[in-house]
Amino acid sequence: MPGAGAAQGAAWSAEKVATAFRSRFGRDPVWLVRAPGRVNLIGEHTDYNEGFVLPMAIDRAVWIGLRAREGRAVVAASLDFGEEKSFALDGLGHDGEGWWEYLKGVAWALGESHHRLAGWDGVVAGDVPIGAGLSSSAALEMAAARAFAAVSGLAWDAVAMAKLARRAENEWVGVGCGIMDPLIIGAGREGHATLIDCRSLEMRPAPLPPGTVVAVLDTSTRRELTGSAYNERRAQCEEAARGLGVRALRDVTPADLAERGGALREVVRRRARHIVTENSRTLAAAEAMKDHDRFRLGRLMNESHLSMRDDFEISTPALDAMVECARSAAGCYGARMTGGGFGGCVVALVEEGAAPAFLDVVARLYRDRTRLEPALHLCRPEAGVSLAPVGAE
User: Fold this and answer.
1) pTM of the model as a whole
2) Please, are residues 359 and 366 in contact by the beta-carbon 8 Å criterion?
3) Largest interatomic CA distance in the chain
4) 375, 101, 78: which is closest to 226 by C-alpha?
5) ∠ at Cα 109 (25, 149), nearest 5°?
6) CA 320 → CA 29, 257, 370, distances in Å?
7) Containing domain of residue 189, as a range?
8) CA 98, CA 89: separation in Å to the nearest integer?
9) N or C: which terminus of the chain carries fewer CB neighbours within 10 A?
10) Candidates 80, 121, 127, 181; catalytic one
């Protein structure tokens, strides 16, 4: 499913989006919204199990330049897809499976929460790669939520809006994702990853170990989450929780699973084992970051990938190849697939001084091994969604 855009890899900026808005609508936008993508360092598929995750917002983003319009309609042009869509805020209904459905889903979720929305004209663009596991769809949803809040005079509450964005993804788009993506996009902290308790929504900043950087290694393979094995994995986790007599797998310890897991179907037991051990790894990773222990953090990332490959079965040959290429390059402390799985990106923790050479080596090794052209870049932790005024009405 298309997310935010950037299918063509355009380097968008506030200035370019504002210029495109003037070209399309004949005047300046009033606001510019920026919603970052995110990369998850560790804690995969644990969010909808009410567990722990450790993501960070990144320096790739979705932009919306907008201004309020008369009446209750939205007119939005996507620079990445080269098309314009409009929809009325009254009587919302589905119309295909394009990027505009994310805008409509957010409008629907806000309306279901009794918010009275105003319409707007907007230009949408982004450089979060679609389907790469960097949360292009949640970035678009949170950007849309910020846009609706601006034109409708709604108080901005990142946590409340993240819950509504999750509802839009679950009930309008049809992907059974958890709270992690919209929450880190809404509440990310510059220079830090964030440990999130997905039950209480308590957040604790976690700085990267000194002298390290995060590399995002795009395999150039893509997956489709809607109607896919993602929802199947969620159903299997729910089956495991029922079989173990708990509200969510968050409530199961490794000892509990060893004692009572025999009652579960074998495949369900392996799914549960990934979640239970991943929660433990995520908490340990946060402690490693607190202690500036890059080596322990890297080992935990490596263990996480093995668990996703073998127990949760969401890796692919391309992802496995990228992980192996990364681990064989000098300066890498650890690497794992990131995101929902079945394609997309690997995240690696890398020695800062070795990072440029690391990217060159990994690109060559991966290209030779797979005949695919990867997209590799370093990223820094960014703040969450922002709104900047451009001019007066």
Assistant:
1) 0.90
2) no
3) 67
4) 101
5) 45
6) 44, 27, 11
7) 1-393
8) 17
9) C
10) 181
Euclidean distance between CA atoms 365 and 106, whole angstroms: 42
Yes or no: say if 129 and 192 are a contact pair by the CB < 8 Å rule.
no
Rounded Cα distance, 178 and 11, in Å: 29
How many Å apart are CA 230 and CA 308, to the nearest integer?
13
Residue appearing with tokens 């000194």? 210
For residue 50, the one-letter residue type is: E
Give the Cα separation of 165 and 140 in Å (integer): 10
**What are the tens digits of pLDDT across the range 322-342?**
999 999 999 999 999 998 888
Gap between the Cα atoms of 154 and 148, Å rounded:
8
- H-assigned helices in the chain: 14-25, 100-112, 136-152, 158-167, 180-187, 229-244, 254-260, 266-290, 294-310, 317-328, 355-370
Q: Are 343 and 316 in contact (CB under 8 A)?
A: yes
Tens of pLDDT along 99-131? Answer: 999 999 999 999 999 999 999 999 999 988 877
CB 268 within 8 A of CB 280: no
How far is 289 from 283, CA to CA, in rounded Å? Answer: 10
Tokens standing for 345?
Answer: 């990106």
CATH number, domain with residue 96: 3.30.230.10
Tally of domains within the chain: 1
311 as an active site residue: the answer is no
Q: Is 200 exposed, middle or buried (0-12, 13-18, 19+ CB in 10 A)?
A: exposed
Q: Is 51 helix (H, G, I), strand (E, B) or coil?
A: coil
